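Notes from hallway chat w/ T.B., transcribed later so I don't forget. T.B. wanted the structure written out for a chain they're using in a teaching module, and asked if we could keep both sequence and structure tokens in one place. Agreed to drop them here.
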Amino acid sequence: MASPGTDVVTGAFGFTGRHITERLLEAGRTVKTLTGRPQLWGTASDPFGGQVEAIPLDFDRPEALAGVLRGVDTLYNTYWVRFANGPVTFERAVENSRGLVRAATEAGVRRLVHISITNPSAESHLPYFRGKALVEEAIQGSGLSYAIVRPALVFGEGDILLNNVAWALRRFPFFPVAGDGHYRTQPVYVGDLAELAISAAGEPENKTFDAVGPETYTFDELVLLMEKHVGSRARLAHMPQSLALSLSRIVGYFVRDVVLTRDELVGLTANLLVSTEPPRATTRFSEWLEANGAKLGAAYASEMDRHYRMRPRGLLGN
């Protein structure tokens, strides 16, 4: 059984999970992680220096998951998949998430804080956004005390998507933009997201809320701002969505990665990464970029390397 004050973070070696874990450790909490990369624990690649016990996130053993969660104060769930890959599908991710919720319920976890996405919908034709909505429904019907946090486009140290936008701006003479580039997004700093999640863990009521930053950009404005701070002279090239996605696949072939998914592109152009709620995060993307632009995109960040390659068999997700 976990000791008092113990929290569990799924995917603590990942992007959002790492920032949540760092802040929990700073607050003196005992933290364990359910992870698809338990082999990192105690190695030179372990960002926590062995402070966080790593336990395999094995969805095929629900009784083991419940055992890990028994006596835990708060479960911070960042588990999801960015795209389907082999046996890793959105349908499987939904079922895995439902199993994790059942395990948390059986174990008597005091509070579940779940990281979702802005504007999920069970009626969406986009599997990413539909799957996120179905997981939210499972949490809301579980009987657990919960907080569901819905971030938009997350940026910060360890990010993949915006890092690779900067990487492309540094290396190519033009940057493909789907459509007119006038669709909007509200970037949220990963540190602010982590603090919002931890704050929500201490609140008594069930709640669902958006986590977005104080600045709203059209996509053109976002790319041009990044271009300025990374020292790029690339020109924006507006084109049909299908062509922009095809070009991303060509780049993906050479870097052996999935650079951009259809769900991501369609969700962005449909204005699904903005909120009608007041911004809860305070860090301005423009200020963060001014401080970090010199190193952003200096190296390509591979989703396949981080989450799919060199993974023990049977483990999925973060």
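Follow-up for T.B.: The chain is about 40% helix and 15% strand. Might be a good example for the class.
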